[in-house]
Amino acid sequence: MIHVKNKEIVVPGELIATGNFRTQFGIEKDGENIYSTIVGVAYIDSEKDYIKIVPLEGKYIPRGGDSVIGMVEDLALKKAILDINSAHKGILDIRDATMNRNAEIANFFSVGDIIYAKVYNVSGSVALNAKPPYGKLHGGRLIHISSTKIPRVIGKKGSMISLIKKYTECKVYVGQNGTIWVKGNDERMEDLALKAIEIINIESHISGLTERITKFLEEKR
Q: What are phi and psi of 155, to 5 degrees?
């Protein structure tokens, strides 16, 4: 028996279902009773007997292959230390930023620089690669949202982010750590792209999101 609706917001300790269900994140079982352990959105597939809870907020958990956007916090001789909205700092070694391994990292980056990078190893520290097509981002504007909402910003097969790019003609780089970089030909289009992302962040759990974003962009462009 399922006790909540699909995509309903739930809280820790709330009874989600009773019975033999396959579960993933945000779930605790007590006999046949299944409870939420976090504040999040319940995703329930009754046909496949599958339940998971997607958190509304939370720090980013790095995974190999993720694209992230971080800010340089500190520089060592051969390494840059980046804030990537995680419990762990991102480490960018000179060999993963340029072919010139003998150069000093300060020749390429400064504290405060915004870097688009790829996570290639997670073992205590988070090792990053910023070789092309990754690297330092120039100009543009940043927006920070919950990393759990990034899949909704991207959309199925990139549909949502393509929609934003189409209507605003902005470059948009999405970090799976919840940081998004937007750069357009004018400030008004950047504002429009950022506002669309804000709406997605707030309304990600509500059905019909793509239609609402399309209507918003059509009316405001």
A: 80, 170
Q: How far apart are CA 23 and CA 156, in angstroms?
A: 22
Of the candidates 171, 167, 172, 182, the one whose C-alpha atom is nearest the C-alpha of residue 214 is: 167
pLDDT digits (tens, 9 = 90+) for 114-124: 999 999 999 87
> Could you read off the pLDDT of 17-74 as tens digits, one per residue?
998 888 877 888 898 899 998 888 888 887 778 888 877 766 788 999 999 999 999 9
Note the pTM of the prediction, 2 decimals. 0.77
Q: Which of 75, 212, 76, 198 is nearest to 141 (CA)?
A: 198
Question: Which domains are delineated in the chain?
Answer: 9-55 (2.40.50.100), 67-137 (2.40.50.140), 141-220 (3.30.1370.10)
